[in-house]
Write a structure and sequence with these properties.
Length: 104
């Protein structure tokens, strides 16, 4: 904000670097240890099918830090808030970033 002006929600909302830093901190150290979902339908995964009614579990702290060849994030063990900006634009695919569960 301009000098002497009180900080507002709008000012905070314009702090892109801060948002990317928080997002990166949550990617590296997510608040949820384990996500559990019940399959509502049969779900094909490679050569296997998860049967309807089975419980599926995902660990965000693991899945968002997999080695690069298996991950959506380059150098996943490095704190890099710029990974969310051009030209990298990482973590934008469906369920690549699941810090708070991916909305599922």
């Amino acid at each position: 904000p301009p000098q002497g002006e009180p900080l507002t929600f709008e000012h905070v909302n314009e702090m892109d670097t801060m948002h990317y830093c928080v997002k990166e901190a949550i990617r590296m150290f997510p608040p949820l240890i384990l996500l559990m979902r019940k399959a509502k339908v049969d779900i094909p995964v490679g050569d296997y099918t998860v049967p309807k009614g089975d419980i599926i579990m995902a660990a965000p702290g693991v899945s968002m830090r997999l080695p690069e060849k298996d991950s959506s994030f380059s150098d996943p063990d490095t704190f890099d808030p710029d990974r969310y900006t051009a030209p990298k634009n990482e973590g934008k695919g469906k369920y690549e970033y699941i810090g708070f569960g991916g909305g599922i």
